[in-house]
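Troubleshooting: if your tokenizer reports a length mismatch, compare against these two reference records.
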Amino acid sequence: MCVGFFFQAEDGIRGAQESRGLGDVYKRQRRSFLKAGPLALCGCLFPQAALGAANNMVPSQRSLSIFNQHTGESLEKVYWSRGRYIPDALAEINRIMRDHRTNEVIPMDTGLLDLLHAIHCRMGSQEMLQIISGYRSPVTNRHLRECGRGVAKNSLNMGGMAADICLPDKSLSELRETAVELECGGVGYYPRSGFVHVDVGSVRYW
């Protein structure tokens, strides 16, 4: 697990250094593979092959295929390659995940992007990931709270560390289950509103 989990609603903004993302997922998978490898391979007759298989679990590229429901904008972009994030690609992703009400753009947490990538890949979806809410400015967050929309006072959306998402070819319950299994942050289930909230804060579910 990335961190211990709690059953509570969305918490406040944390520093980017505290976020959890795909790197943690692959590290856990690699450690699990290496730990189980000797037993699984009956004495590990081919230890180098086992190590190579573990390393191959980490892809050489990470990409996002996303659609913003409010603006109608879409994007398919490789944002990480050969161990590095690609600045131009990140800028495009930041733009499409902006606060659509104010048009404010901030750098989205790369841990969140990695989490979205992991969810999309793990579910095997053939559709673009639908973004209902990405970055949310303090002004927008305050307005939504005043309108009784149930958003947290210190929403992680304001720090670029959260997103409300859905996938047209997958059920919300499947999406929630996948996000929970990854154990990389908060997961909120909102079937009436048609989305699942994911973030890279502390691990908790509601």
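Reference record two:
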Amino acid sequence: MNTSNTVHHELPPPADLVHDRPNYLNVAYGLKSWLLTKDHKRIAILYLISVTVFFALGSLFALLIRLELLTPEGDLMQPDTYNRVFTMHGVVMVFFFLIPAIPAVLGNFLVPLMIGAKDLAFPKLNLASWYVYNLGGIFTLWAIFSGGVDTGWTFYTPFSTNYSNSYVVATALASSSTASRRSSPGSTSSSRSTACGLRA
């Protein structure tokens, strides 16, 4: 019998040995290990959780807009409230979901693996960026609960500087946009433009 043609296959390691290998999920446990991590994969998961929360908030605003637009009359919201909900939907979805979703989540998780690096170049700065992102989200939530922003998510300057009666600065700081908060004396909701989908 010729044994040179026989192929020997290695058996996979037992399941209990596979689970004992340290990886980014089981290297440390507890909330502190996640909030102070420097592992790019854990930071990507933190971003994924934050982005998902903001997506849910933006979707809630979209649902309110759709419910308002079921009928031509303003059944659910007044025009000023609609303008604020429309603006906050755009701010949350663009600045806190669309822009950070791909680079923050997939970029953090996959790029070091794709280039063969152990981690990102500045892991502490990577974690600090997640905290700054959440701080911007807190500023935005403060602006929402303090009365909202009624300028449209683009913050076009004639409307946002002359006719706004809301917290443009807080939202602009949170979303890294440039706008200022000034109100024109005597401006009312009926004198506002209907540009960008806003109701007068």
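Descriptive notes for reference record two:
- The radius of gyration is 25 Å.
- The chain has one domain: 30-197.
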